[in-house]
Write a structure and sequence with these properties.
- The chain is an alpha/beta fold.
- The protein folds into 2 domains: about 80 residues, Alpha-Beta Plaits, CATH 3.30.70; about 350 residues, 3-Layer(aba) Sandwich (Rossmann fold).
- The strands form 4 sheets. Strands 8-7-9-6-10-11-12-13 form an 8-stranded mixed sheet, sandwiched between helices.
- It is globular, with a radius of gyration of 21 Å.
Length: about 425
């Protein structure tokens, strides 16, 4: 194909993509520089290196810059920073505070509301065999695992989360200085890509403004056996909070990619992403980021399948439908007969596994607790299982961990045509 035909084809694809998702951040452009070329030859307001030969260019007009770079053959690839489109996130229903007490029911956990966590129940009661796994293999995993919650933020002061928050030990809180020189100021518990400083750098305030991210965090790792609230699925975990999803759910590709890269570089081994969009505008950035952090940093990305009651094989959702060995895609089940939740997406080829996602009780802002439903809730249940297995088997690569989790499911005939593994997450079986 000639150069002129290639450019015309690329522009045609971009125009076609706009019919699906026309909203872009016209101040940012993603470029992949050709081997042997230099980003220094491109004049823009500022530049940020992502990984390998990928860069973010901050500009006054991304559309004009993209046309110029492609027409002059200065880059291998250029992508707009697309928004996902606004959508309503699951809301907290009947949020409540709980009295600090010790559960009167005998068992592995003294957290007063642990009986509300149906995901902890045995597989024959539609759960993930969480309680029985701890009874069989001990109360705590050997190695601490950092799980990044890329979401609406996390209430790091929550009574059931404050003791499990990841802390950047090389950063001095509140001094306005990038102490560890990683490009972010005061990133004590993570970063906020939705609030940026004058230079375009993400800030360090991860406080949740919605509830969604706090709910996800509690499911993964709320402090076990502290006589407070609930228990998270994982026993030896630290939660890294990253605020990248607006309350309206309109995240951008650049913010998602930067969040994944930050989490990987700062030590996260599991990333939960309970978000997504219906269309990918042929952009490569997020998929190549997932591949990169898996290969270079050993990170498994756990993603929600989506809530449109549709088949992802025929109608892809992103990031869930990206093809990556380091990506585990999760459908949601209901406590009623262990069926696939009515809202859950599925896919024999593209959805990997199922986990409890309907009526999930967890933490929300202000040291309260509430139910939420969605594949957004199934994904952190799966991420918690992944973190616990990795804690006890730290030598596993992301691909090996994914393979183990999918091969140790509770098989259900009704799921054989709904997902790759044909079953639901089972912590005890995975640890066996």
């Amino acid at each position: 194909m000639s150069q002129s035909m290639r450019i015309a084809c690329a522009l045609s694809l971009a125009v076609s993509a706009y019919s699906f998702s026309p909203k872009i951040n016209n101040k940012r452009l993603v470029v992949k520089i050709k081997e042997g070329s230099s980003v220094e030859n491109i004049e823009v307001k500022s530049k940020k290196h992502l990984f390998k030969n990928y860069y973010i260019l901050n500009t006054d007009n991304a559309q004009e810059l993209k046309s110029y770079l492609e027409s002059n053959d200065l880059v291998e690839y250029a992508q707009f920073d697309f928004h996902s489109g606004e959508q309503e996130l699951p809301q907290a229903q009947g949020a409540e505070t709980l009295q600090e007490s010790v559960s009167e029911k005998p068992g592995m956990f003294n957290d007063p509301a642990v009986n509300k966590l149906w995901a902890f129940k045995s597989a024959d009661r539609n759960g993930m065999n969480v309680s029985s796994a701890y009874e069989a293999f001990g109360r705590k995993g050997d190695q601490e695992v950092v799980v990044a919650v890329v979401d609406t933020g996390v209430d790091y002061n929550h009574e059931d989360l404050k003791d499990v928050m990841w802390v950047n030990q090389n950063e001095i809180p509140g001094n306005g200085i990038d102490d560890d020189q990683n490009g972010y100021i005061d990133d004590v518990h993570g970063i906020n890509t939705l609030m940026r400083d004058a230079d375009g750098n993400a800030t360090g305030d991860i406080m949740d403004k919605h509830d969604h991210g706090t709910h996800v965090a509690g499911t993964i790792g709320a402090t076990q056996n502290n006589g407070v609230g609930i228990a998270g699925v994982a026993s030896n975990v630290k939660i890294m909070g990253i605020r990248t999803v607006p309350n309206s759910g309109d995240e951008t590709d650049v913010d998602v990619a930067e969040s994944f890269l930050y989490a990987a570089k700062m030590g996260a081994k599991v990333i939960n992403c309970s978000f997504g969009k219906r269309n990918n505008e042929r952009g490569l950035l997020v998929q190549e980021t997932i591949d990169h952090i898996g290969q270079e940093y050993g990170v498994l990305v756990v993603a929600a399948a989506g809530n449109e009651s549709s088949n992802n094989d025929n109608s892809p959702k992103y990031p869930a439908s990206f093809n990556s060995e380091n990506l585990l895609v999760v459908a949601a089940t209901s406590s009623w007969r262990g069926s696939l939740a009515y809202f859950s997406n599925y896919g024999k080829r593209t959805v990997d596994i199922a986990a409890p996602g309907s009526g999930i009780y967890s933490t929300v802002r202000g040291s309260r607790y509430s139910n939420m439903s969605g594949t957004s809730m199934a994904s952190p249940n799966m991420a918690g299982v992944a973190a616990e297995v990795l804690s006890r088997n730290p030598e596993l690569s992301p691909y090996e961990l994914k393979d183990l989790l999918m091969n140790r499911v509770t098989k259900l005939s009704k799921f054989s045509l709904k997902m790759v593994s044909g079953g639901t997450a089972n912590l005890k079986s995975a640890l066996e």
